[in-house]
Amino acid sequence: MTGRPGPVHIEVPMDVQAEAADVTLHPIASRLPIGKMYPSPEAIQRATDLLRSARRPVMVIGGGVITARATDEVFALATQWKVPVVTTWNGKSGFPEDHELFGGSVGQTGTPCGNKLASNADVVIAVGCRFTDWSSSSYAKGITFSIPPARLIHIDVDPHEIGKNYPADVGIVADAKHAVAQLVAALKGLTVDRSAYLAELGQLKAEWEKQLASRRDTDRFPFTSQRPLGALRKVCPRDTIFVVGSGNTQGAAKQTLPVYLPRTHLTSGGFSTMGWAVPAAIGAKLAAPKQPVVCVLGDGDFLMTSQEIAVCVTNNIPVVFVIQNNAGYMSIRGGQRKLMDRHVGTEFNKPDGTPYSPDYKAIGQAFGLKSYRVERPQDLENILQEAISANEPVLVEVPTDRDAAGPWVPGWWDFPIPAYITDERQEEYATTRRSEQHL
Ligand SMILES: Cc1ncc(C[n+]2csc(CCOP(=O)(O)OP(=O)(O)O)c2C)c(N)n1
Ligand SMILES: [Mg+2]
Question: I want to staple 88 with a disulfide (CB 3.0 to 4.6 A). Which of 62, 168, 213, 324 is the partner?
Fold first, then answer.
């Protein structure tokens, strides 16, 4: 209940559970510190000075912004001081993505726009963000971040995060809500003209939108990864909670599925844990019963915990499960092909080499869910609309093309090339690796 909030594992062995004792239970609240941590005035002063000198500021928000319920303060700082906002994986939903100051996401499967903006910033304000390898393009200089020469204001409740992956000019250990609120107050009444910078942002976003549309707005069938995500955004209310599985769906959702309200995008995050999305979506619906919950995930991910859909039926929990079926672990196949020139164990095939897939619609029906398979692209929106409106557990299978699956990869991730690959990929890898800052 203290420190950086998050999941905690406590193990209670059986023999301890079986013991009996007379104990006095002290009220736990009287043992905990009161309130949240405020920033030091000196740090706020130095951060404000730096922000006033910034010509190309960018705010990077991580999951800490959402956990600390600091999204209103972040919005106020961004709009008052005209600072574009980019998000990490867990920071997604911390800023409305239809706002003109939204710059996209950062990292390996961020957006080209988000990475360009962040790597060309002169001042980066990081709030509740750990700069993980995914979100920082494995620290390769200039791909997602250029710190230094960019100067960093780093706000985090955990002192170990400050300066851990990038040197901070101003490190602020504080609750994100208080820290950002104080920056807003310190800049109050000051104005700034960033019309040229914001026009550049608009241009970058327009280019990205064109790129995105080529895969999102196509009737190619089986579907691209992006098409059903675009359709979901069209038919789902603004407050819909999207719970996203791993693999191609996860990266594609980060890029293609805009969200507008805090806690409306839940992802298995950097370790991309398969089998997480189905139970997580059930939990999300229990926690927020008034908001629609859509779980969108790959066939491989679904198969790891698919039996949990029974819980939706036995407890009347109306989650919509959308399965992007490409008959295999296509995100892994992609990596195997690119880095090892072969793939193994990632296509689900019959002995004769043709694709194998269980019948997902039949699985849904067998468990007692209302179930669909989209057979034609023109039916997609209608089926999804019906699923959202049904107010009962629903399963929708969307056939997905094995060769049109996955997000764009505008950033970098340090994935070593095996020694037996002896072509130009070795040199390319070595060159980018040499630019990693922590080495
Ligand atoms: C528990 C677990 N095991 C293995 C992995 C490695 N892994 C990441 S994505 C992936 C394949 C996901 O397949 P699917 O859900 O069908 O999505 P696709 O990549 O085909 O779109 C695997 C095996 C993982 N992230 N989690
Ligand atoms: Mg798959």
Answer: 62
From ligand 1's centre to the CA of 388, what distance in Å? 26
Residues lining ion ligand 2 (Cβ < 5 A) are 298-300, 326, 330
Please identify, by atom number, the ligand 1 atom nearest to the C-alpha of residue 275.
1
Ligand whose nearest atom lies closest to the CA of 300: 1
Nearest CA to ligand 1 atom 21: 248
Supply the pTM of this predicted model: 0.95
Output 356-363 pairs: Cβ under 8 A, ≥24 positions apart: 356/327, 357/299, 357/325, 357/327, 358/303, 360/299, 360/302, 360/323, 360/325, 360/395, 360/397, 361/395, 361/397, 363/306, 363/395
Token reading at 432? 């980018």
144-202 pLDDT, tens digit each: 999 999 999 999 999 999 999 999 999 999 999 999 999 999 999 999 999 999 999 99
Give the pLDDT confidence score for residue 283 in this predicted structure. Answer: 98
CB 107 within 8 A of CB 144: yes
How far apart CA 5 and CA 3 sit, in angstroms, is 6
| Residue 130 contacts residue 160 (beta carbons within 8 Å) | no
In whole angstroms, what is the distance from residue 59 CA to residue 126 CA?
A: 6
Letter string b/e over residues 304-324, b meaning 16 or more CB atoms within 10 A of that residue's CB: bbbebbebbeeeebbbbbbbb
Do 48 and 186 form a contact (C-beta atoms < 8 A)? Answer: yes
Residues 4-62 pLDDT 10s: 888 889 999 999 999 999 999 888 888 888 889 999 999 999 999 999 999 999 999 99
Distance 33 CA to ligand 1 centre (A): 41
pLDDT, position 439 = 53
For the CA of 273, the nearest atom of ligand 1: 26
Residues with C-beta less than 6 Å from any ligand 1 atom: 245-249, 272-275, 298-301, 326, 328-332, 405
CA angle 381-328-333, nearest 5°? 115
Smallest CA separation from ligand 1 atom 2, residue: 274
- List the residue whose alpha carbon is closest to atom 3 of ligand 1: 274
Q: Three-state SS for 124?
A: strand
Query: How many whole angstroms separate alpha carbon 289 and alpha carbon 274?
Result: 24
